[in-house]
TrEMBL record:
GO terms for cellular component: cytosol. Belongs to the RutC family. It holds the Pfam family Ribonuc_L-PSP. InterPro entries: RidA, RutC-like_sf, YjgF/YER057c/UK114. One of its GO terms (molecular function) is deaminase activity. SUPFAM superfamilies: YjgF-like. CDD domains: YjgF_YER057c_UK114_family. This is RidA family protein. It comes from Arenibacter certesii.
């Protein structure tokens, strides 16, 4: 009687183990920047886990001059989103692949103006968190990081 239960338990364990082995395990891929000057940065432009891409925060920097664009929150928002588009395109995606944005503004006084510009780029309305923080890199007025899903 004991032998019968031992065999049944063994079969259950074996079945469970084979199911675990068959599961796909996604290993993070740390992608190097497509911008030559940024390849020396101590972080990845994007980290891929399966079909999810986690992009590092982007600011309104002109990647040629390596300076923040002039023109205030409108110009910086447009350049920031352009930089996001560039990273996404490098990985075969577009803004409509974005499912989550985290927006950091230097001042919440810029919220309405930022929101007006942002709305033109994200009509699909991805989930979003927006807050203010002082001391953004290079005295930027805005930083945006995104999560995107790449559909095969």
């Amino acid at each position: 009687m004991m032998g019968k239960y031992t065999i049944i338990i063994f079969i259950c364990i074996l079945t469970s183990a084979s199911e675990l082995i068959a599961q796909k395990v996604d290993v993070p891929i740390f992608h190097e920047s497509h911008v030559e000057r940024k390849k020396e940065s101590p972080f990845s432009d994007a980290v891929q886990v399966g079909n999810l891409f986690f992009l590092s925060g982007q600011i309104g920097i002109d990647n040629t001059t390596r300076t923040v664009v002039s023109g205030g929150i409108v110009a910086e928002t447009k350049q920031t989103i352009q930089n996001i588009q560039d990273v996404l395109q490098h990985h075969g995606m577009e803004l409509n692949n974005v499912v989550k944005c985290t927006v950091i503004l230097h001042s919440m006084a810029d919220f309405a103006t930022f929101n007006e510009v942002y709305s033109n780029y994200f009509p699909q309305k991805p989930a979003r968190t927006t807050f203010a923080a002082s001391g953004l890199a290079m005295d930027a007025k805005i930083e945006i990081e995104v999560v995107a899903v790449k559909n095969d």
